[in-house]
Design a protein that fits this description.
The complex is a heterodimer of chains A (622) and B (294).
Chain A lengths: L1 H11 L1 H14 L10 H36 L1 H7 L6 H30 L9 H23 L2 H20 L1 H4 L5 H24 L4 H38 L1 E5 L4 E6 L4 E5 L2 E6 L16 E8 L2 E8 L2 E8 L5 E7 L4 E7 L1 E8 L2 E6 L9 E2 L7 H6 L2 E3 L5 E5 L5 E5 L3 E2 L9 E6 L2 E9 L5 E6 L5 E7 L9 H6 L17 E5 L3 E7 L2 E2 L3 E2 H4 L19 E5 L2 E6 L2 E6 L4 E7 L8 E6 L2 E6 L4 E6 L4 E4 L4
Antiparallel strand pairs in A: 1-2, 2-3, 3-4, 5-6, 6-7, 7-8, 9-10, 10-11, 11-12, 13-14, 14-15, 16-18, 17-18, 18-19, 19-20, 21-22, 22-23, 22-24, 25-26, 26-27, 27-28, 29-30, 30-31, 31-32
Helix pairs in contact in A: 1-5, 2-3, 3-5, 3-6, 3-7, 5-6, 5-10, 6-7, 6-10, 7-9, 7-10, 9-10
Chain B lengths: L3 E12 L2 E12 L3 E5 L6 H8 L7 E6 L14 E4 L11 H11 L5 H10 L13 H13 L5 E5 L7 H18 L2 E5 L12 E6 L2 E7 H7 L1 E7 L10 E6 L2 E6 L2 H8 L4 E8 L2 H16 L1
Parallel strand pairs in B: 3-7, 3-8, 5-6, 6-7
Antiparallel strand pairs in B: 1-2, 1-4, 8-9, 10-12, 10-13, 11-12
Classes of the chains: A alpha+beta (622), B alpha/beta (294).
């Protein structure tokens, strides 16, 4: 019978519900004003979804609760329903059940659309609960006060006020954690809830009839439940946040065969083989649990022999710390601004690099000294190798010269301007093929086309691989200087020896095996066609590219949970490993000597996968 | 042994400082029809809602066919109620209203519903929004009886209805009342319209049933007395003054005992009497109610 009443209540509130759903759906059209500009479209869409998840649902809860609560006391409802053979308590519970069902539908709808679009913002564990509880809380408060006052607007308004106090206390603490302690606000909201219950009690006992007394019972029960729920929710939010915090890890290379793993909790571990050794312990509680936009966490780490250097991102600024694994860390330098990108590098000595206005600056790290920033030239990261081989690009980048050891200068005129990369480097590198020293450059032609240019010792140039989006060679000098840990072609052996790999549009790999000789191009999309992908079946690699490793003409390619050993010479897949069981939609990898570490960011897992596809779990946390 | 269908014992109910029911006690046998006479604000609707378990009594005991109000709503499964102003959900049609009720009342009789609706010329597709008072009254009546209740509570069931609809409903009610053998309590300002079917008449005044009359007796024993009132004396107790011009008075009495008492009181001279029409008797009783309350 109560089911019939819920159905009736849902019918009564159908118009309001349809209006809310329509408002949500119509609002999603707003990002389309950006049309095909996906750079603006996707974040705007995500922002809209996030707004609905955080604020919109609360307002919907207030509207639904207020409307249902007041509707229950409306003359039509009172006269039409009060004679039905159902208790008033059941009637109230059913009315609120309908509100809860509508709110649940909205939560599911928002999540479903977010999932279809593939937004990561809502993909975390417990997010349904985190969205639903506050919406339900607001709905309940609005319902109660609307019922008592017979005024849906007043009830809704009070619901929002209470809801937001709840939000301050539990739902959105990370936004406010810099200002207000949520542990103070949560009891504050609870006290307000109790006060509300007292007011309701007074109102209801005055001239109370059976309906009102049933309402009083409902109010008291629901208030107590909500308060309990609120406390549980606060605890749950903290629990989830802490769990999430440990899942939000990032990694940095430590050595050729080990990596650092840092979580938002502020801890740092050195992962070598299958062991994770604590370098720096997490603090017991941190605001960074909630401060997803930035908080106290380790932004970068680097190893200099036994000393570990840490770039720590804190609310009050960034600081650089130094210490040994498991020991005490001391602050070496402070005062880094938080508007720039900072990276730690070994540039002769341990240094910190800063990206600002498209340029890189670098400063050595010396305890007690101020930063001394030196602007890197456009070829700054390549300076070392360019100097070592006496290579100098022309000022207009339309040519390149090299002074040979015997003093002779060779100048190559290029068909266009040398491409520049994000890190300020030029798409200029060298390779050694058949004992020939070749300079390789990615050159821009007209209309956005690019071409790969080989510069031969006899002064000739040879162009190939004309493409609209030819990537710069893999081991650009930036990588050589900053990060020598990974080279997909470390010890090429056998009859076929892949000397170099060039990326075209990021998905077509061109392997050079001799002067001007390539293996057949490998279209990564085709290689992975039909392979099972983690998450939403999208081709993506959260690393430096799909190529992990090469031996002879065999290459190991990875994409979103699928690992393929591919014979580039024969153009066929030798072996395929489905790794989707150990990774989800958000995954990334770090290649080390004997395999690669696969991060499952959604579930906070780390596995090591060797080149035979053997998987072993790395226990990051006990 | 008589079969008591409705029993109220010292039922009280207050709203704040206002005591509406001060100790209502009454019993009604199964199959009997009782009219509740009382002026506006005397607590008729409060009494009905208390009996229907819609509001609870402050004290006292209510029993309807063995069931007491307990907040569960069970009592309403077996009790029909026509409110003074029937209201239904605006978004429904007449058919929707019946379908809704059918889902809640275990004994809802669809055939009977159709039969009564047809008799009352109700269009099942008619929307509630914009429906006339007459239509709403008819729907209210169908809703009250379609679940075959053993007890019917009718609270001003013809209030606000035009004469045509009122006649239509009353003719149906009379038929229903006469044929079904249900126990019925009816409050109506136009109680004379129902005089033919009432078994008892209860006068609600001052929060209690101030008087209770057997309708058969009332019809035969109520009399109008015309007489000269002796100088310097009061009207005999139990009489109601209808009219007075100097010493000449017209008074009403409702029972044989009251008549005998008035005639034998010695304060009246030149006594003439005639049967008091039942409609006038009821008006007089209503007058008493007002005076007592005032």
């Amino acid at each position: 019978m109560i089911g019939r009443y819920i159905k009736l209540e849902m019918r009564k509130n159908r118009l309001v519900f349809i209006a809310l759903v329509s408002a949500f759906l119509v609002s999603l059209l707003a990002p389309y004003i950006y049309g095909s500009n996906r750079q603006l479209f996707e974040p705007t869409f995500a922002a809209f979804i996030f707004f609905w998840a955080v604020a919109g649902l609360s307002v919907c809860g207030a509207v639904l609760g207020g409307n249902a609560g007041a509707g229950l006391r409306a003359e039509a409802a009172e006269n039409a329903e009060i004679v039905l053979p159902i208790s008033h308590g059941a009637r109230l519970a059913a009315a609120f059940g309908a509100v809860a069902a509508h709110a649940a539908f909205l939560v599911l709808l928002i999540n479903a659309i977010a999932a279809v679009i593939g937004l990561n913002v809502l993909e975390t564990t417990g997010v349904l609960w985190l969205m639903y509880v506050p919406a339900l809380y607001v709905a309940a408060v609005a319902f109660i006060f609307a019922y008592v006052s017979r005024n849906g607007f007043l009830g809704g308004l009070i619901g929002v006020v209470f809801g937001w106090s709840f939000g301050l206390g539990a739902y959105l603490p990370w936004y406010l954690s810099k200002l207000i302690n949520p542990f103070i606000l949560a009891p504050g909201a609870a006290a307000a809830g109790i006060a509300g219950a007292v007011v309701a009690f007074i109102l209801l006992t005055k001239n109370a009839g059976r309906a009102e007394r049933a309402g009083l019972f409902f109010v008291t029960t629901i208030t107590v439940c909500l308060l309990l729920g609120q406390f549980f929710s606060v605890g749950y939010v903290f629990y989830v946040a802490e769990k999430e915090t440990h899942r939000f890890f990032k990694a940095f290379y430590a050595t050729r065969s080990s990596i650092f793993v840092a979580s938002r909790a502020g801890d740092l571990k050195l992962v070598s083989g299958l062991k994770a050794v604590p370098v720096l312990e997490a603090q017991t509680f941190q605001w960074s649990y909630f401060d997803w936009e930035g908080g106290d966490y380790i932004a970068d780490a680097i190893c200099d022999k036994d000393v570990v250097w840490i770039l720590r991102d804190e609310k009050l600024g960034r600081r650089i710390m130094r210490g040994v694994s498991g020991g005490k860390f001391e602050t070496v330098m402070t005062g880094l601004d938080d508007k720039s990108i900072h990276l730690m590098v070994i540039h002769g000595k341990v240094s910190v690099g800063r990206r600002e206005n498209g340029s890189w600056y670098i400063s050595p790290l010396e305890a007690g000294k101020a930063f001394e920033w030196t602007k890197m030239e456009i070829n700054g990261w390549q300076k070392k190798f360019l100097a070592a081989f006496n290579i100098k690009p022309d000022d207009d980048l339309m040519g390149v010269s090299r002074i040979l050891p015997k003093g002779r200068t060779i100048h190559w005129k290029l068909p266009g301007k040398i491409s520049t990369g994000y890190y300020g480097g030029l798409a200029l590198d060298w390779i050694s093929v058949n004992n020939q020293f070749l300079i390789v450059a990615s050159v821009q032609l007209e209309k956005g086309r690019k071409v790969l240019v080989f510069c031969y010792p006899d002064g000739k140039v040879k162009t190939m691989l004309e493409s609209r989006a030819l990537s710069i060679p893999y081991s650009v000098s930036f990588a050589r200087d900053y990060d020598e840990h990974w080279n997909p072609l470390p010890d090429a052996k056998g009859d076929i020896s892949i000397k170099y790999v060039f990326y075209e549009r990021g998905v077509i790999l061109h392997f050079i095996i001799a002067d001007g000789q390539f293996l057949p191009p490998v279209d990564v999309e085709k290689v992975f066609s039909g392979k099972k992908m983690a998450g939403y079946q999208r081709l993506s690699y959260n690393g430096d590219g799909p190529l992990l490793h090469a031996e002879g003409s065999l290459v190991w390619l990875y994409m979103n949970g699928a690992l393929v050993k591919y014979n580039a010479a024969a153009g066929k897949t030798e072996k395929y490993w489905d790794l989707t069981a150990i990774c989800s939609g958000e995954n990334g990898y770090f290649v080390v000597k004997d395999g690669f570490y696969l991060f499952d960011y959604d579930n906070g897992r780390l596995h090591f996968v060797d080149w035979n596809g053997a998987v072993a779990k790395v226990e990051l946390y006990d | 042994m008589t079969d008591i269908s409705v029993a109220l014992e010292n039922v009280t109910r207050s709203f704040g400082a206002k005591k509406v029911l001060r100790g209502v006690t009454v019993r009604l046998e199964k199959g009997k029809v009782a009219g509740i006479l009382g002026r506006n604000g005397e607590g008729k609707t409060t009494l009905f809602k208390t009996m229907l378990d819609i509001i609870d009594a402050d004290s006292g005991r209510i029993e309807i066919n063995g069931l007491s109000p307990d907040g569960s709503g069970l009592l309403r499964q077996f009790t029909g109620y026509v409110p003074e102003r029937p209201v239904f959900h605006n978004f429904m049609t007449v058919g929707d209203v019946f379908a809704l009720r059918a889902g809640f009342f275990k004994n809802w009789n669809p055939a009977r519903t159709g039969e009564i609706a047809k008799k009352l010329s109700l269009d099942l597709n008619c929307k509630i929004e914009g429906a006339s008072k007459g239509t709403l009254g008819k729907i209210g009546w169908v809703c009250a009886v379609a679940h075959e209740p053993s007890v019917l509570l009718l609270d001003e069931p013809t209030s606000g209805l035009d004469a045509l609809v009122r006649d239509e409903l009353l003719s149906h009610m009379i038929e229903e009342l006469q044929s079904s053998g249900k126990t019925i309590l009816v409050a109506n300002h136009r109680m004379e319209e129902l005089a033919g079917v009432l078994d008892e008449l209860w006068v609600l005044a001052g929060g209690v049933f101030a008087a209770r009359y057997d309708m058969a007796n009332l019809k035969t024993e109520a009399r109008q007395i015309t007489a000269r009132l002796k100088a310097g004396v009061q009207l005999p107790a139990g009489t109601v003054l209808i009219n007075q011009e100097g010493p000449l008075v017209e008074i009403a009495v409702f029972t044989k005992g009251e008549f005998d008492k008035a005639v034998g009181s010695g304060v009246l001279e030149n006594i003439n009497s005639a049967p008091l029409p039942v409609d006038t008797a009821m008006k007089m009783l209503l007058k008493i109610t007002g005076e007592n309350n005032g």
